[in-house]
Amino acid sequence: MIKKHDILISKFIGNTPLRHCDALSTRYHTNIFIKEEFHNLGMSAKDRPALFMMEDAIARKKIKPGGIFVEASSGNTGLGITLIAKKLGYLAKIFVSQSCSKEKIDLLIKAGADIEICENSNGLHDFNSTQFRAQSFASMHPNAYFTNQYYNTQNIRAHYKTTGPEIWEQTDGDITHFIAGVGTGGTISGVGRFLKEQHTDINVWGIEPSGSILGHFVKHRTLPTSIVPFDPIEGIGRNFIPGSFDADYVDHIFQVNCQETKRVAKEYYNQTGIRVGFSSAAVMASLDSYIDRMDFAPTDTVVLFFPDHGDRYISKLYNDNIRRPHTSSNMTTF
User: Which residue ranges run through the membrane (predicted)?
Assistant: First the structure.
């Protein structure tokens, strides 16, 4: 008997393309590939942990049929949970911060999520945060389950079991660098662990906004003495250390600023006609800012992780661009 999990994985989630990027490869004199996660069900990498967290909760009988899956999300995980919940016969309650893009909120509403907008996403210690409000809601409703992507080990496991092996196979084991934005930490921790188990010399690099504290933690294994607001690059950066972030599999985290990220997104769009997401643009911005330190060889195989699509950030990144992109994409539905 085929399980719903298997159907979702084989048809809608995972096995996303790895595309060679001629423009970036030529510019940086190396071989650059892009892992395009917007081919998933909800057009983002977050569909992977959403499915793993939900299947785990159902298997452990933490939620009964018809119950409510609850999450604190910048939008993408919430959308994945909402779409999967609908398919499996559950409801979704998603808490987003006021910095969430209008496009993501519209998608959540269209998908059927019950959403609440919160002041921030500063972690469980802040009463006004998405995390605290989500946990409180789940605790007060008998058939609700808080998937809690920031502290759920299934977040890491999803990428260890699916994304990492895909990248290894798609590069024929020749990958030398993996570069991804860091938010909850699940992607870089899961992919990083898998890749380093295959070859310890693979460079696993994270990207975060200026002011975020994850890079400091990777280097010193302590929190900085002072915590300041970080640049608003949607989906990445933290002022606390998520439980789903395993620094042991991350070699270094580079910081980029918001304005440079926006500039790179528009530049890439004008050059290629492809709209990239906010954190994807941040990954590209790191190449411009740190290319000398990255020191790529012409024979390297560099994989950039693009977790979602630029259509979710029109209002934040592309409003002053009037050219239509060469490619278009729509949210996958069942």
Answer: none
Which tokens is 172 given? 């024929």
Q: How far apart are CA 297 and CA 192, in angstroms?
A: 21
3-state DSSP call for residue 244? coil
DSSP state of 145: E
Torsion sign over Cα 326, 40, 14, 278: positive
For the entire predicted model, the pTM comes to 0.91
What three-state secondary structure class fits 232?
coil
Six-digit token pair at 320?
């002053």
Dist CA 110 CA 79 (whole Å): 10
Pick 47 or 323 by higher pLDDT.
47
User: Which pair of tokens denotes residue 250?
Assistant: 């991350």
Q: Hey, what long-range contacts does 284-291 have (CB within 8 A, 24 or more apart)?
A: 284/24, 285/207, 285/256, 285/257, 285/260, 285/261, 286/179, 286/205, 286/207, 286/254, 286/256, 287/24, 287/28, 288/260, 288/264, 289/254, 289/256, 289/260, 290/254, 291/28
Could you tell me which of 150, 154, 163, 98 has the C-alpha nearest to residue 124? Answer: 150
Cα 248 from chain centroid? 19
The string of DSSP letters for 30-58 reads SEEEEEEGGGSTTSBTTHHHHHHHHHHHH
- Residues paired with 20 in a beta bridge: 33
- If one counts every other C-beta atom within 10 angstroms of the C-beta of residue 312, the result is 28
User: Which residue bears the tokens 């719903």?
Assistant: 4
Residue pointed to by tokens 């195989």: 301
Task: Name residue 211's amino acid.
Answer: G
Q: Where do the domains of the chain lie, and which CATH numbers do they carry?
A: 4-39+159-318 (3.40.50.1100), 47-146 (3.40.50.1100)
Q: pLDDT for 135-193, tens place per residue?
A: 999 999 999 999 999 999 999 999 999 999 999 999 999 999 999 999 999 999 999 99
Q: What is residue 221's three-state secondary structure?
A: coil
